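Hello forum,

I keep getting stuck at the same step: I have a sequence, I want structure tokens, and every attempt I make locally crashes halfway through. Rather than fight my setup again tonight, could one of you with a working pipeline run this one for me? It's a single chain of 119 residues.
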Amino acid sequence: MDNLTQRLKNLSSAEDFLGFFGVPFDQKVVNVSRLHILKRFFQYIRSEPDLPRDDESALFACYRRLLLQAYHDFVASTPAKEKVFKVFQDAQGQQHVSLDSLKASLPSAARPATQSAGA
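Reply #2:
Ran it on my machine without issues. Output:
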């Protein structure tokens, strides 16, 4: 078990993980979704109820299946639709800035002049 764990510690990129587990991939998908794929893979690992911790080859097969599933999530969808990261969950993939907050952020010299109540 320690052998698999040690080998996994040496992997650093999505391509490293996909290659290690023998998952065929399209580089264009990985270029757009690399962090999303890895985050989803680790989410799947954490939610897997029956990880075969005492059998290294079974654990390798389980991890491979989960990585393949994570990769295919982004072949069929987009990071914004999958909402893996908090920014997509909170803002539905969009950022909202109010007009008032934009006006307030302008330097005072650039703000439109307002009429005083006594004029």
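The chain is about 60% helix and 0% strand. If your local run keeps crashing, start a new thread with the error log.
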